[in-house]
Amino acid sequence: MLSYIVRRVLAVVPVLIGISFLTFALLHVIGNPCVALLGDHFTPDACVEIRLRYRLDDPLPVRYAHFVGRMLHGDLGNSITTKRPVVAELAEKLPATFELALAAIVLAVLAGIPLGIVAAARHNSAVDVGAMVWAMLGVSMPVFWLGLMLIYVFAFQLGWFPSLGRLPSGLTIPRWSGMYTLDALRAGDMHAFGIVLRHLALPAFALSTIPAAFIARITRSSMLEVLGQDYIRTARAKGVAERAVVARHALKNALLPLVTVIGLQTGALLSGAVLTETIFAWNGVGRWTVDAITGSDYPVVQAGVLVFAVTFVFINLIVDLSYVWLDPRIRYE
Amino acid sequence: MSALDLALPPRPSPARPPLRDAVRRVRGSRLAMAGLGIIGFLTFCAVAAPWLSIQHPDADGIWSAFMRDAKQPPSLRHWMGTDKLGRDLASRIVYGARTSLLIGVTSVSLAIAVGAALGAVAGFFGRWVDAVIMRLMDIMLAFPSLLLALGIVALTGPRLLNAMLAVGIVSIPTYARIVRASVLAEVGKDYVTASRALGASPMRLLLHHVVPNALAPLIVAASLGIGTAILEAAGLGFLGLGAQPPLAEWGLMLADNRQSMTSFWWLVTCPGVAIMLTVLGFNLLGDGLRDVLDPRLRGGRR
Amino acid sequence: MSRTTLRAVRALAAGVLFVGVAACGEPPAPLPESTPMTASSAPTEGPEVGKTPADTLVFGHADDATKLDPADVTDGESLLATWQIFEGLTRYKAGGTEVEPALATEWSASDDGLTWTFKLRTGVKFHDGTDFNADAVVWNFNRWFDPTHPQHFADWEFEYWKSMFQGLKDETNEDGTPKSVFAGAEAVDASTVKLTLNRPSAPLLQNLAMGNFAFSSPAAVEAAGSAYGTPNGSPIAIGTGPYKVAEWMKDDRLLLETNADYWGTPPATPNLELRSIPDNTSRFLALQNGEIDGMTQLNPDNIATAQEDTNLTVTFEPPNNVGYIGFNQAKAPWDNIDCRKAVAQAIDKSAIVDTMYAGDAEPAAQMMPPSLWGYNKALTDHSFDMAGAKTSLEACLAKSTLPEKVQFYVMPVARFYFPQPKELGEYIQAQLQELGVTTEIQSPDWGTQYLPDVRDGKAELFMLGWGGDNGDPDNFLCQFFCGAESSFFSKDGQAAPPDEALATLLKEASATTDPAKRTQMYEQANQIVHDLVLAVPLVHRSPPIVFRATVTGYTASPLQHVLVGVTK
Fold it and tell me: CB contact, 8 Å: A142 with chain C?
């Protein structure tokens, strides 16, 4: 077991190095760093100064080393548009994306798992077919289109939810973590908490559709596979209560692919966050990165891509490590 | 060993099903047939576009009489109404089918070509070649696909061609893994060692044994992959980083018509539904094929 | 039902409950009474979701301010914010470009135009309580002008200073003369300031009214250091204006509250919130939904929608820009007036305005907008006349040869004067093709390549535009034709004026201080530009601004957004 853990953790290292190199290459090798870093203010003289400051004429490995060094010191450069340190802006926007993604995954799990279980329990019934059709539609729908439809129906026509933003005008929540749900709870302001949830509802729902659909399908197929096994039949024959059958025997074994899917779906979630944040004017890393791409703000593009990639790697690491608990085979490796 | 490998352990190769038997089983799968139906309709639209539409989609209605027809609701003449420049929406959607199919097939073909080659090399030569290639694939998989595609497009410039390239590149690891798994499943077998000892060339082994083994999961993955590619390209088009105006591409149409959404909802609903149905078709086909061609993954009570 | 189903139903019910709590978190209550907003207090009675608080004007703009120090910003979004917080010596009259007193009550110039004396308003305080006086004015000028000043922070640009005053302290030209128009500032007494110039500058008052030359509190800048003007600055921004900064959530919203000690008319709405919503469509939807009270920058397609919506009022600001086609006269045959005339006659400006703009533009006849003094009202434009154009082209071809493919530069991204540049470029290409001139469109990347290429003289025809900064015709005409701008006559990157006589006239006009004489000179200049067809002005764009119908008191202005008088 220990060797498994160690091996998995160590395997992350070359991937992280690869990610850092890819993001470095983004700006320094493929793009024109002088132009990218100066943007509109590009003049040949300013370029000379930039070349000196960023050591652009040094050999590639040296530049990469400096890049990594600066990165480890928390320096990801300055945004070309605002000239503020990228790290500072990142710290401001990360909680927003995190909150959105978390809400989406919670919704996806809450919706997907029960749906999958029900569909498995009522295999081949109308419920099963209906659930699977819904799941199919879920993964086929473009997330940005769903977001638009939701805004049109629920915000514009019905007025139940706001159409954009994290907070309405006139509401300030003392900032502690940057995640307004937590901050409102910490301030004990349930009224504000409700309002924040209302703002979170539509984007989180839009974002959760695809993961929910995947989770429902995987839950269903895992449950079906497990429920068809001999030992389940044996347990039933022995008179074990159905609930225990499902919970103790079936569910735990079905969890393995489920956890895998949740981990993989986080990647889809991060991608979807980019589109959702744009539509809902959500002040997070996704929107920041897209704006930076259209605005040619390469240091920000670098940072955004880096953050998402590293997050994804660590989530998958956690998923892999969770197998230690979920998959007994590993304990004996 | 990574997450995916654990969840789906390499399967033993089934006896190669006779083609007729496979086709019969595909016909029996409702999912696959539904998917094929949708895709068939889509292909028909794409091929017959010039005859099905009343207007060429690139008709520049800016300074012509089209303008007076702008933003018309669905009517007998314009089944889906007209957009802000007076162009018939239905025609543009039908032509959009061409673009989408092109995007899907091209990017997946690229991904399979490169991915299969990489996977085969990795599986066959093993050891450090395998390690290097698989690490590279892991790194690529570490980036959320849309973001990696965005990054590639950011560098190469916003154009449909670059979007297709980006979407293709992003899917390479999937196919590489599939082919590698198939290769690995075969390479360990006795007959392979025997053949190699007898001097059979790697190419022959690849073609005669590995390819049939890999074909099933590849087809499934490709089918699902085309759907994904279409979705991602639409996303890029929506962000303005893929297809450029005046091309009739569904994602681009969504972006263009978004501003009229509150007054002319059909301009947004129709392209979105088109995307959804298309992707649904490929997903149905992929799921159906998976059920048919790979019984291990089916799972269910008999 | 079976246990599994029961379990599933319970889980679903929990989920529904969860969503229900969220939806019920907001009791449907009528709008609360005005809740004064301070940065630290939690709201007592929250606002209703989807509606704006009664005491706050919520204004949506496309981008957040990059910085709240007016001296260092160039973008309109930052200036939108700083206009409400800071003031300078002079300011523009609401609705126009004339200058009126602001922090200076009266002024006079010496006969040689090199010394200006300003009498300052007394009893004015900065938001941090420190006095506004002559010392503060001198401190600010020195900070902008002197690179060795401790608060002239090294990585800051002070771009507009360099552009309007042409240089910093101790910068000299090749012949030793100082680059800068400005020489120094001196406090004569607590409420009188003397500005000395190196050469007479007639646009000085107009320049000083620009938002970039508004004053910050010296104590504040010293305290905040180079974080001044940023969200982590302490303080963020201290001026003398009617609003002061309450809180700034970067890229989300900027909250401004009334300056209780303001010397002038207090703002009509106690609080102002500037929300940044980058996407035009989302912003418009929020406006229609009542989540914001006003916005700028509409999608052209939404203008008609907004005009038809009885809940919204659309106002068009007087144009302060010009979009045009320029000729690079260094490349033959564009030095031949007949060829230029042919192009000018081949373009139907009314058609362009009708089809590519949504009622927010007018055809342009001169290279500066009609809202500016110095506009020649008597001038008639070259009319659209394809037959006449072809005749001119024949005359042109008699003396010069046309290249096979004329290099026509069209920008790839929307500009505020050309929202659909690609379509416009293609239209013009089609018109020129009909005339008999074949063009090849080049669209290098706007951010990095377009301007350098045009300035290097790679283009023969090019689309460009200009937005006025200070309401002075010099800002338009001299910018184009005084010779510093290499696009109109550029050989190997060396700039020269396309017409020497015009350049001399313009330079003289910028040195004359008599307003009547200046007006006449600029009218004459406009006539020359027209007669010589130095460029083909296409459109002046009037940006729309939309408010909810219940919001009143906005005065449309070409140079600023006057939000102070707006009432909800």
Answer: no
